[in-house]
Design a protein that fits this description.
single chain, about 375 residues, alpha/beta, Urease, subunit C, domain 1, TIM Barrel, six-stranded mixed sheet, 10 helices, about 25% strand
Length: about 375
C-alpha cells in the first residue's frame, strides 16, 4: 500500500514545519518534503495537523498481562531465576490493550516479564499490530531483565524463598553470571557439555556484550548495585524505572548509562518511590543522560505515555526533549534507532497523526500507520482513493 500525508506539520530537528508531505510505500517512509508528486493508492489531506513518529514505550508488559482477567503470564513467581523466559511465548496480540496502545499513538514497545525475580527473562521489541507477536517482531532478545529492590523482596516473602534481602538477590545475580561465564567458556573450548542448560544459554548474549542488562531499580542504592554488577561482569546496562536516578545524574552521565524513567504518574505507594519527582527527566537530561519515558503497562494505562511527557514539560522540560523521550530516545535506548523513532526516508512506516500538538492532552489521535498499515480514528479524516 502507498499512502501520502498531504499538507501536514512534521517534526524535524526538534521543530514542527508546516506544509509538508510524507510518502509511505511498502511499509517504509519513502519521501519527506514539501513537494512530492506521485500517484498513490491513498491520500490523506491533513490540513496542517501534526504528524509525528509512532510513539514508543521502552518498558512494558503489554500482551503478557491480559485485560479484564485474573490470569496473567507476566512471571513465574515460584522460581528462583528465569533468564530463559521469552515474551514471544506468552504475548496475546489480540488483547484489548494492543488496540488501546494503537489508539494512543504507540506503534512499538519493549515487552518484558514482570520484575518479581532477580533475573526475570529476556526482553523483546515488537510492533503493536498483527494477530501474532511474530508478525511485528523487531528484536526478540533485546536484553535480560534483572531486578534490584522491593518487588523481588516482596515476592520472596510471599513464596518463602531462601533469599529475601537486597544482598541475597544481588548474590543470586552474581552467582548466575559467574555460572554463565563458566558455561560459555566451556562451550568456547569445545568441551563436551553433559547437558545444555536453557537458563545459561539465555545469558550468553548478555555475557558476550550483545545485549544489555536491563536493571529494574528505583532507589539510588539499587541503581548503584546494578552498576557494580555491570562493571564487574563488563555488561552493557540500562536502568529501568530509575525513580531516584536523578540523585545519581552525574554518575549515570559519566558512565553513559541510559534510563527508562517511570511510571512517573503513580503515587508514592512504596518506600522506594518516596523521592519520586516529575523533575527527574529534566535533571537527568541536563546532566547528559539519555532518558525515555514509560507508563510500565499495566502499572499505568498504556494511554498515559503522552501524559507523562506533558507532565515533564510542566516541570521544566522543553517540548523538543519531551517528545524525543517517547520517540527517538527510546528507539536509541532499545538499539533500533536506525529503523524507528524518526520521520526519515528508509525508516519504518510508523506514523501518528494528531489533531493538535501531540503533547497537548486535548489533541486527539486521528490516524495511525504501523508498518504501512493504516488505522483511521476520526470521522474528520478523509482518505482519497486513487
Amino acid at each position: 500500500m502507498s499512502i501520502i500525508f498531504n499538507n501536514v506539520r512534521i517534526i524535524m530537528s526538534g521543530k514542527f514545519f508546516p506544509g509538508q508531505k510524507v510518502l509511505v510505500e511498502k511499509g517504509k517512509i519513502n519521501m519527506v518534503g514539501s513537494s512530492i508528486h506521485k500517484n498513490v493508492e491513498k491520500t490523506i489531506e491533513c490540513n496542517q495537523k501534526y504528524l509525528v513518529p509512532g510513539l514508543i514505550d521502552a518498558h512494558s508488559h503489554l500482551g503478557l498481562f491480559e485485560s479484564c482477567s485474573p490470569d496473567n503470564d507476566m512471571a513465574e513467581s515460584f522460581a528462583e531465576i528465569t533468564p530463559h523466559l521469552r515474551p514471544l511465548d506468552g504475548i496475546k496480540m489480540r488483547d484489548r490493550a494492543m488496540e488501546d496502545a494503537r489508539r494512543a499513538g504507540i506503534t512499538a514497545c519493549m515487552v518484558c516479564p514482570a520484575s518479581e525475580l532477580p533475573i526475570s527473562g529476556i526482553c523483546s521489541i515488537l510492533k503493536t499490530n498483527g494477530n501474532s507477536a511474530d508478525v511485528g517482531l523487531i528484536v526478540e532478545q533485546a536484553g535480560v531483565l534483572m531486578s534490584f529492590g522491593e518487588l523481588p523482596k516482596h515476592n520472596a516473602r510471599q513464596t518463602e524463598k531462601s533469599h529475601s534481602t537486597r544482598m541475597g538477590f544481588t548474590a543470586i545475580i552474581r552467582e548466575s553470571l559467574m555460572k554463565a561465564q563458566d558455561y560459555y567458556a566451556a562451550k568456547q573450548s569445545k568441551k563436551v557439555l553433559k547437558d545444555r542448560e536453557i537458563d545459561m544459554e539465555a545469558l550468553i548474549p548478555l555475557i558476550r556484550g550483545e545485549v544489555p542488562m536491563r536493571a529494574c531499580a528505583h532507589r539510588a542504592e539499587d541503581i548503584m548495585a546494578a552498576i557494580r554488577i555491570a562493571e564487574e561482569f563488563k555488561l552493557k546496562l540500562v536502568i529501568e524505572h530509575g525513580t531516584e536516578a536523578h540523585l545519581l545524574a552525574s554518575i549515570l552521565a559519566e558512565k553513559k548509562i541510559p534510563v527508562v524513567l517511570g511510571p512517573t504518574l503513580i503515587p508514592r505507594l512504596r518506600n522506594e518511590l518516596n523521592e519520586k519527582t516529575f523533575e527527574s527527566a529534566i535533571i537527568l537530561m541536563d546532566a547528559g543522560v539519555d532518558v525515555a519515558l514509560t507508563c510500565d503497562y499495566p502499572g499505568l494505562p498504556i494511554e498515559t505515555l503522552r501524559v507523562a511527557a506533558a507532565m515533564a514539560m510542566q516541570y521544566g522540560l522543553d517540548e523538543r526533549r519531551a517528545l524525543a523521550a517517547i520517540t527517538e530516545i527510546p528507539a536509541k535506548i532499545l538499539g533500533v534507532d536506525e529503523r524507528i523513532g524518526k520521520i526519515k526516508k528508509g525508516y519504518d512506516g510508523d506514523l501518528a497523526l494528531f489533531s493538535g500538538h501531540p503533547l497537548d492532552i486535548r489533541s486527539k489521535l486521528e490516524a495511525l500507520v504501523v508498518d504501512g498499515d493504516l488505522f483511521i480514528y476520526s470521522d474528520s479524516i478523509k482518505v482519497e482513493q486513487a
